Structure formats: C-alpha cells, structure tokens
Structure prediction request, 119 residues.
Amino acid sequence: MFAAARHSREAEDYYRHYKEENADWGAVNNLMTLQGLHAQSFPAEALKTMRSRFAAGHGTYPLVGDPDTIAREMARIPEAGFAGTTLSFVDYVREFPFFRDEVIPRLERMGLRAPNRPD
Prediction:
C-alpha cells in the first residue's frame, strides 16, 4: 500500500487516517478469520501487526513516507530477492501522478527502473 507525500509526517498522518481512524474493523476481523489469522498460537504483537496491515490494504507491505523514503524502501524489494511487485493506492487518480513525478525518477536514478524513453 502506497501512502506518500512531500513530507513523511504528512504521509504517516494519511496512512494512520485510513488504516486506524477509518478502518472497517468488522471486515478486517472477518478477513483475518477467513485467512486463518485468528489462532491463539500467534504472538499478540504479530496479530496486531497483521490486523493493522489488513486494515491498511488486505495485508500488504506498506510504503509510507516522502519520495526518498518510498524509493529507499522499494529498493529493499529486489534486495530481498523479489523480481517485482504490485502497488496499490487508496486513491489512484489522485496519488499516481505524485508517484509518477516524484518516486519513479528516484527509482530510475537508483537503477531500479529503466527510464521510459518514447520511440
């Protein structure tokens, strides 16, 4: 899940807004039960983290921060051995232009993405 802003504090506030203050906890609890994530064998802190992640975007790996933070965090994905990832946005129409204009150029400078060169 992507939550970015020019300043990390703004991104963190936005992330907290939709994952805590506006979460559908009934749906989160139901989804976790369907996924088998209700067992008492999980440590309480692990269940708390999973519940928060499900509230924020179906259990996703959160990318939250300013563009530099997002790019650095995305660099960890291939370092961990993954060849790619899928991103989701709370409001794609509003958020993607920021990602395109601010994060993608950083990924290109880091060598994590080839520049888009029109033919």
